[in-house]
Design goal:
By secondary structure, this protein is an alpha+beta fold. It is globular. It has six helices and four strands. α1 packs antiparallel against α2. β3 and β4 form a beta hairpin.
Length: 165
Amino acid sequence: MVSVVLVALLASALGCSRNYTSAVKAMNVSNIQKLGNFYSDFQASHGSLGPKDEAAFKSAISIYTPETMQLMGIDPNNRDAIWISERDHKPFKVRYGVLSPFGAVAAVVFEQDGIGGTRQVALNNSKVEEVDEARYKELWEGRGVSKPASTGAPAPGVPDAGAKK
């Protein structure tokens, strides 16, 4: 899977053609999706392991150029804004240290309160789910997320998607 941030970097290097710009914008509609995409990019460059804590995550995000941030719809002078939900106006909860081997899908960024009885959850595949309380709890605990189709028997000792190191 090509990460959204990688697509943004490529588009930036190529002069932001309309096709790349449109694709990047479509994959970065909300703050939760942007943060989820950064998490996925971190995993892609760190052996499928998510950042260990908020400081490591923010440090990794800080290396992106202002052009890349703008392409993703982020004000480079206010990068911390992506840590707040546009819906409930509260900081997101993040599951740190999530291991997603072999492209396994895991829930990584969570709204605190949401709205109307549902909360959004960002997965590490550029998708955002709007979920009820039961599903939210399941995802926060690292359960209930789909995995890619198996092409053979799983290797012994390979952890499930979302398992923490």
